Amino acid sequence: MSVLALRLAGPLQAWGSSARFARRTTETAPTKSGVIGLLAAALGRPRNADLSDLAALSFAVRIDQAGTRVRDFQTARHTDTGKAMPVSERFYLADAVFVAAVAGDDALVQDLHAAVRAPVHLPYLGRRSCPPQGPVDLEIVRAADDPAAVLREAPWQAAAWHQERHRSRPSVRLTLLAEAAPGDPHGTALRDQPLSFAPSHRRYALRTVVQTSVEVPNPRFQPGERHHATATGRRVPVPPPRHTPEAHLTQLPLHLPPDGH
Amino acid sequence: MSRTILDVHILQTVPPSNINRDDTGAPKSAVYGGVRRSRVSSQAWKKATRNAFGELLDPADLGVRTKKVVDALTRRITARETSLTAEQVWPMAAEVIQVATGAKIETPARKTGAKGGKGDPRGEGAPEPQAPQSSYLLFLSARQLDLLADLALEGIAKKADPKVHLKDPEVKSRAKKAAATRHSVDIALFGRMVADNTDLNVDAAAQVAHALSVHPVDLEADYFTAVDDQNGDAEPGAGMIGTVDFNSATLYRYAAVDVDLLAANLDAGLTDDERRAEPAPGPAPAPTPEPVRRAVEAFVEAFTLSMPSGKINTFGNHTLPDAVVVKLRSARPVSFVGAFERPVTREGTGDGHVRAACEALAAHVPAVEESFGAAADHTWIVRVGEQTEALAPLGEQVNLRELVGRVGDAVAERMGKRG
């Protein structure tokens, strides 16, 4: 068994698990169906090909940089009729970085690794308008069978500015989403276990996901760093002063009125 | 198998403008690298690119998206066979389209109140007959309509009943094939969805990213007052007041074209004989790369020169790119948006953003390509002015005309070798 780790980073990503019709939502982390779809596309599998071997891979994902949710309001108009189409909302994750990992047979993982390096269909992060920034393949770990275990060891992939923001901390706590057996008391169900990508009838089964957290070292940790300008010239935020609205008031000498009132 | 993938990277500056707005009327934005950037959505620039195709490509290479497919096919048939009237052709045309695409074809219900309709109290004369329509928009290329017109004309010549004519297995399979062949250039590049008949879906060969500004952007608002010309001195003050949101930005635009998929889309369902029957009189029996060359050239030119039309009359932001970098690769596409993840900040230096953006890109490209062994086979650069000097060492400097020609030649050569 081997594990393939993928770095999923880009200005925009969109990982839908229940995105339908005019409201296309995104989960906060890559879905299994999205990542398996990316791998199947890289292998050049047609959409209606059997994907049981890929769906059988075990899957985990780590949130290295959570990013923010962007709502994109989209209108469409027909070129020929000039009629307006229903308006739709598409949600994206902006500025996020994830590490996903899949585990399977040595030969299959080897093939997947080669495929993401020279993909047959261009890879994208959940939606075609979201090309990845930087290579998708992170590493291949042999003699391993637990994707979550690999993600506990993988170095922190967040952007440099994001790591610098946490430079006062030697390590950071990241969210890790791993698979569990159905009915696991700690798990939640997510409908992103791909059964078929056939365009006529895409089908997904429920998958049980367990959220844990993992501590990873911060490569940009700077011990003893306090308030002075950094090399980039950006000011370190100074904590705001304590709120004392009476500080500027001066104590007046206490005069007793001469008439005794 | 060696692949052919084309990357297009563009730096383009727009002055105060609002080319792509959300439902609040503000220009779209996104956070990247921890700061807010101006954003122009992928779909907005694809639409602008597709609109620009109209001027670059022969109408025969473009598709039409309409419910009135029967009308469109009928016009093609009557143009060839002038003795026929439209009404004589409709039944056959409708049946051909129904069999070819699987779409439901029905005569639209008459609007009540229309002349001769149920709601018309006078009920004068016979209503104007209407051509049947498909239940949703169908996207058919000019060539597909030609092939379907051939089939319909055969049936009409035999005076056959439409249903009987299309029951013939040979005719039926040709009809189905006709609808799945020879996608027009815009369908091959940007894809198509057909709700009922997924055999006709086409995967887009082009990927267009949302354009992002290379620097932090603040939203600005223009407060305007408008004078009412008919107000006399008795009514001083504005006729109306309001605000228009806008921003100005140096944008990084990125698109990738999977040329192999484009070729497959354009060639879909053609037999070898049909491929050779292209108007290429040479003795070479290799498949002709000509349609692929035309499509790639049109895409590069249209994507480079197009501009979404949002608020263009208000802001007149008709700019052209500062720099275009085009790369031809054989493994995978590479986006250089990472060059701007650390935002280019030039506040107060009076130096603008373009120079710094070009320097950031010039440093980023070789670094990425060396680190990941992702060197490109060809790199061409179109750049304007000395601000973009930093990009000069990246590749061969050309003007846009030359760029389009070189890209077309390189693609045609590689596609020709493939056969």
What does this structure look like?
The complex is a heterodimer of chains A (261) and B (419). By secondary structure, chain A is α+β, with helices and mostly antiparallel strands. Chain A has helices at 32-43, 52-55, 106-117, 147-153, 160-165; strands spanning 2-13, 23-24, 58-65, 68-74, 88-104, 137-142, 171-179, 188-196, 203-217. Residues 112-123 and 278-287 of chain B have low confidence and may be disordered. By secondary structure, chain B is α+β, with helices and mostly antiparallel strands. Helices cover 37% and strands 20% of the residues of chain B. Chains A and B meet through β1, β4, β5 and α5 of A and β2, α1, β4 and β11 of B. Chain B: Pfam families: Cas_CT1975. Chain B: Keywords: Plasmid. Chain B: Residues 107-131 are annotated as: Disordered.
List the topology elements.
The complex is a heterodimer of chains A (261) and B (419).
Chain A: E1 2-13, E2 23-24, H1 32-43, H2 52-55, E3 58-65, E4 68-74, E5 88-104, H3 106-117, E6 137-142, H4 147-153, H5 160-165, E7 171-179, E8 188-196, E9 203-217
Parallel strand pairs in A: 2-5
Antiparallel strand pairs in A: 1-5, 1-6, 3-5, 3-7, 4-5, 7-9, 8-9
Chain B: E1 5-17, E2 29-32, E3 35-40, H1 42-56, E4 63-66, H2 69-80, H3 86-101, E5 105-106, E6 133-134, E7 138-141, H4 142-157, H5 162-167, H6 169-179, H7 185-190, E8 206-208, E9 211-213, E10 220-226, E11 240-258, H8 259-267, H9 272-276, H10 290-305, H11 312-315, E12 323-329, H12 354-371, E13 378-383, E14 396-397, H13 400-418
Parallel strand pairs in B: 13-14
Antiparallel strand pairs in B: 1-11, 1-12, 2-3, 3-9, 4-7, 5-6, 8-11, 9-11, 10-11, 12-13
What keywords describe this structure?
heterodimer; A: 261 residues; alpha+beta; nine-stranded mixed beta sheet; 5 helices; 9 strands; B: 419 residues; ten-stranded mixed beta sheet; two-stranded antiparallel sheet; 13 helices
